[in-house]
Design a protein that fits this description.
The chain has 150 residues and is of the alpha+beta class. Helix content is 14%, strand content 31%. The protein has one domain. The chain is globular.
Length: 150
């Protein structure tokens, strides 16, 4: 699908913006200003569709953590895992696609086909955990102080 012979920087494509919006939901507002002018490059991933977000020439960056994960089934029926990663400064680092059989993407995912698995908020996953603020002031055992072991 993708020609990986060169990796020139470029602007985000509309379909990439749509996938980012689907992955981040309302949290995309945090990154909107940066997304308008950011440069990306295609990664050497065998044509799976991964991109790296480029920082300024004086900024070094390294992977920190995933902020969203999703999957979808490519046109050939093969599962594709997607992770949106940030760097140690909280900037978008990469949109990483991994097709489980390592073959190239046949069709770039449409947002309606994505199954968003996890969206992370700080150190807590929004899909699985409450934020510390949600549990602040709650006594051990729940709001009524009951001990689940009794």
């Amino acid at each position: 699908m993708l020609d990986e012979s060169q990796h020139p920087s470029r602007q985000l494509r509309d379909e990439e913006k749509a996938v980012l919006a689907a992955l981040l939901g309302t949290r995309i507002e945090i990154f909107n200003q940066r997304l308008k002018s950011c440069a990306v490059e295609d990664m050497a991933d065998g044509g799976m569709g991964s991109i790296r977000f480029l920082q300024g020439p004086d900024e070094s960056c390294a992977f920190d953590k995933a902020v969203a994960e999703a999957e979808y089934v490519d046109a050939d029926g093969v599962l594709v895992s997607i992770a949106l990663n940030i760097d140690q400064r909280g900037n978008l680092f990469e949109l990483d696609f991994w097709k489980v059989d390592f073959s190239p993407l046949r069709e770039y995912p449409r947002p309606e086909l994505l199954i968003v698995k996890r969206v992370y908020s700080g150190d807590a996953q929004t899909s699985d955990k409450k934020s510390p603020a949600d549990t602040k002031g709650t006594p051990p055992g729940g709001p009524n102080g009951e001990d689940p072991n009794d």
